[in-house]
Amino acid sequence: MTAIDTAPAAPVARRPRSSKRRARAGRLFVAPNLIAVTVFMLFPLAFSLYMSFHNWDVFNPAKFVGLSNYNSLFTGDPLFSIALRNTVVYTVGTVAPTILISLVVAGFLNRKLKGIGVFRTIVFLPLAVSSAVMAVVWQFVFNTHNGLLNIMLGWVGIGPIPWLVEPKWAMTSLCIASVWRSVPFATVILLAAMQGVPETLYEAARLDGAGELRQFTSITVPLIRSALSFVVVISIIHAFQAFDLVYVLTGRNGGPETSTYVLGIMLFQHAFAFLEFGYASALAWVMFAILLVLTVIQLRMGRRRTDQEERSWA
Amino acid sequence: MGAASLALSPTACSSDDDDALTFFFAANPDEADARLRVVEAFQRTHPDIKVRTLLSGPDALQHVSIYCAGGKCPDVMMAWDFTYSGLADRGVLLDLNTMLARDTSFAAKLRSDSIESLYETFSFNGGQYAFPEQWSGTCLYYNKQLFAEAGVRPPPGRWDEPWSFGEFLDTARALTKRDSSGRVSQWGFVDSWSPYYSAMLFGMNNGVPWSTPRLNPTHLNFDNEAFVEGIQFYADLASKYEVAPNASESQSMSTMGLFSSGRAAMVLGGHWRYQTVVRTKGLDFDVAVLPTGPKGHVAHSNIGTTGLAIAASSPHKQQAWEFVKFATGPIGQTVIGESGLFVPVLRSALESPGFAEAHNRISNLGVLTAGPAHSDGLPITPEWPKIAALLDRNVGPVLRGVRPATSLSDGLSQAIEQLLRAA
């Protein structure tokens, strides 16, 4: 501030020209990105909204049907409620364990121990693996008779579990694989936030006799709340859009039966197997609306909590 | 290999041969080679027509839809019995009757040499949307050595010599072996096709067609007692009689792997498995017909067939017509038969010495040569993708043995009927 206030004034006549030039240069610099965003994001978004009011099978011209696609989705399609329920189960089954495990792992990795860098690298490795490859590996892990998981359970006397064969186990398997994939990303964010917590707070807490657990719950967690909130929002969005992992692990129909039939699979099936692009677009916008509502609620709750905390400190 | 000179292109983006005829097909590397041989033979006789091949990804319907949505429908495309009607219904495919009307001598030759039921597979709503080019119905492969060691009579090798579900079960039981811990070391029967479809095939071999009528059906026979009985028999092979692996047991090794390694005595599969079996060192095998249920009289395979179609929007219709005529006519069919990779669909090619020579490892050649004529049709409806999804959801519990096949009479049967009525 001071630097600006005390800086010698630039010649008045030259300022508008140079700022105009800089603004033009700025626009030119962002133009390529702006064009890409328009072509690859804004146009598809607008087009899918337009298509959600039409019947379109790719081959024939789209036919306007008004709100019919939305009506069928909410009133005439029993699979929508199944897909929604499965998606909610998958989201809860993925996000809750992901947050808990990531907090613990990040807390552990935040310690200043010898060789911690090696552990950090190992924990972050799954981030580098594509979902499809990961799902194929998990297929081997979940193999009923020769899979790694059942072999290990066999050591403690638990009989073979038909992970991907029985509908009641398929969703659990999916959540396990999904948690394994999600933990590294969440850990990266939480660890970065934890490293920003001032060491002096821990020292003061230690002087007051607080143990490790108390320090974690009373200092670390409250001070990384905004990062935690970000991780929750992103994890919910990711889980809600689940497709690739399900497609490879339990098949294009979200089987066995409808046990892993989530909204992402339903969308893909209607668009690319049934060629009902209008219906699939309507479903995509319903998913967007649900996520938007969830995110807004979450952000408001987070803001309210922050306001309360600020008031209590004041 | 001369065929190697024709490059396989997974995408359509070459500008220098925009006037070339595009040919879209799905194939594994071996099959692609056989298709290229047909293309090469065509180019020798039609040097003025350039052909550019487009190899499909794993989902052919999705792949071709993307081409067509982008305004680049391939001129000639492979058509599948189950899915072509969806494309025909949307006006994507050319009615080949319009071309046949102008080429009466070829029409007469094709008719007389074709197998009626296969030809009819691509007749839809009064049009002819493709000509069949290969039969991919199923039969049984059996390990002759395992049969001989167990002292079990081999299954029949002619479609007019049926064997019953009971005889099949006895054979499978005699060939299923367990080790001292009770774990199966050799299965009597394994299935390398899609279990849902195989179950329907057993229903069909109990004397009931899959659907009524076959083309544009209004009803699928999941409420027919005999059809359901056939499905139940198939499901019981794994869940009750334990002569076939269940879904968990076949996770560790592919069913073809079990057969090739001598750990299964019989496998259900189509001709597309022939190369896998023939290349397995030390495997002495032959082919046999499928068993017939108590209410069936004659053994049947299924009309699994692919054909060649022309895009209605093709700017090269005449060249495309020449290619389709060649590939589905006597010369192309003979090339296909000689490759040993496909079963041709013209009688002349089926009976050709080249086809017999390509299959000299088996004695029961009649299973393949008479297979197309002893096949019954699968339902042909534009609604098939939705029906397949319904089957996937409903037949699973029956195959796992947690629900009886009679349960299909209510939910599945009604859901399909509703779907067909709404179409």
- Radius of gyration of chain A (CA) equals 25 Å
What's the total helix number of chain B? 20
Major beta sheet summary of chain A: 2 strands, antiparallel
In spatial order, strands of the major sheet of chain B run: 1-3-2-4-16-7
Poorly predicted spans of chain A: 1-7
User: What is the ordering of alpha helices and beta strands of chain A?
Assistant: HHEEHHHHHHHHHHHH
- Range of helix content of chain B: 40-55%
Overall form of chain B: globular
Mean pLDDT level of chain B: 91
User: How many DSSP helices of chain A?
Assistant: 14
Our estimate of the beta-strand percent of chain A is: under 5%
Form type of chain A? globular
- Largest interface, per-chain counts? A-B, 26 and 26 residues
Explain what you see.
By secondary structure, chain A is mostly helical. Helix content of chain A is about 75%, strand content about 0%. Chain A contains 14 helices and two strands. In chain A, strands 1-2 form a two-stranded antiparallel sheet. In chain A, helix 13 packs antiparallel against helix 14. The longest helix of chain A is centred in the first third of the chain and has 37 residues. Chain A is globular. Chain B has a six-stranded mixed beta sheet with strand order 1-3-2-4-16-7. In chain B, helix 1 runs antiparallel to helix 14 and helix 9 crosses helix 10. Chain B has 20 helices and 17 strands. In chain B, about 40% of the residues lie in helices and about 15% in strands. The N terminus of chain B is likely disordered. Chain B is globular, with a radius of gyration of 22 Å. Chains A and B meet through helix 13 of A and helix 2 and helix 18 of B.
Can you give keywords for this protein?
heterodimer; A: 314 residues; mainly alpha; two-stranded antiparallel ribbon; 14 helices; 2 strands; 1% strand; globular; disordered N terminus; B: 423 residues; alpha/beta; 6-stranded mixed sheet; 5-stranded mixed sheet; 20 helices; 40% helix
